[in-house]
Specification:
Layout (H helix, E strand, L loop, with lengths): L7 E5 L5 H6 L4 H18 L8 E5 L1 H8 L1 H6 L6 H10 L3 E2 L25 H6 L3 H5 L3 H25 L1
Parallel strand pairs: 1-2, 2-3
């Protein structure tokens, strides 16, 4: 029987200021639930590191909130955010590169390659080592993206003509 592979990926994102906004509203419990969701993955994979890999991305806007001392103090009774981030850094989770407001990196124009080393979950968790782990061949990525975009454009033209 052939081996089957499955890639599990999670995207963690919060709009700027959302955690504090929820905390200061009638939906305070939502902020607590959200933080518990960020806390669980590293706890759930403990002991299973040799069985499977988990792929995750954290938007820059979420990381900025989690790094904010005011947020950490506000939610210290919910989750130890410093410990949460330390567990992610020590885990075997593979981080997927995203930008500050969570676009996937292949969608960023080649002229903005300098963004690859700034404001990303990979940069946050791995420092400068991450570029080589996640983007060994950016040229191939751009080629595949350009090819896909050309095919999509052609499909749109064909579809419009059929209307």
């Amino acid at each position: 029987m052939a081996e089957i592979y499955h890639a599990l990926g999670l995207n963690m994102h919060q709009p700027p200021g959302n955690l504090l906004s929820l905390h200061n509203s009638n939906e305070r419990w939502e902020a607590r639930q959200i933080l518990w969701c960020y806390d669980r993955p590293t706890r759930m994979i403990e002991g299973y590191e040799d069985v499977a890999k988990l792929h995750m991305s954290f938007s820059g806007t979420l990381l900025k909130q989690l790094e904010d001392p005011g947020i950490r103090e506000t939610f210290q009774d919910v989750v130890d955010i410093e410990d949460l981030l330390a567990r992610y850094k020590m885990s075997n989770i593979e981080f997927v590169g995203t930008g500050l407001y969570h676009p996937v990196y292949p969608l960023i124009p080649q002229s903005d390659d300098h963004l690859l080393t700034a404001e990303t979950s990979c940069n946050f968790f791995w420092g400068s080592r991450w570029v080589h782990r996640s983007f060994d061949d950016l040229e191939q990525t751009y080629y595949l993206l350009d090819t896909a975009m050309a095919l999509i454009s052609e499909k749109k033209r064909t579809y419009r003509k059929s209307l």
